[in-house]
Design a protein that fits this description.
By secondary structure, the chain is of the alpha+beta class. Helix content is 37%, strand content 23%. The protein has a four-stranded mixed β-sheet. The N and C termini lie far apart (35 Å). The relative contact order is 0.19.
Length: 114
Amino acid sequence: MKFRVEVTESAQAQIEKYYDWYQENIPSFATPWLSKLFEALDTLRQFPNRCPLSPEHDEFREEVRQLLYGKRRNAYRILFTVQDDIVYVLHIRHHAEARLTAEEIYGEEFGDET
């Protein structure tokens, strides 16, 4: 079964933020980084459930998985969920950033539901 990969608005904004940073600070790295990121996202079309649950997955209503992309200082966590035949890319996080919170996904009302 092939899955469709959809990048959420939030994840797209993060991709653009990181790309812009690389363009400004390491221009020769920006385009290859972006190209390989999209190659990594494309691998989610097949067997997305091969990826482990993210460390923060138990804070969410659905399973949140992660795909690691990059190496060392340039490592990122691609956080996503699978619903039916669609992989929703929720966030792209630099490995050194704090864990994703439920409020970042669901908004402030999430705290009121528990």
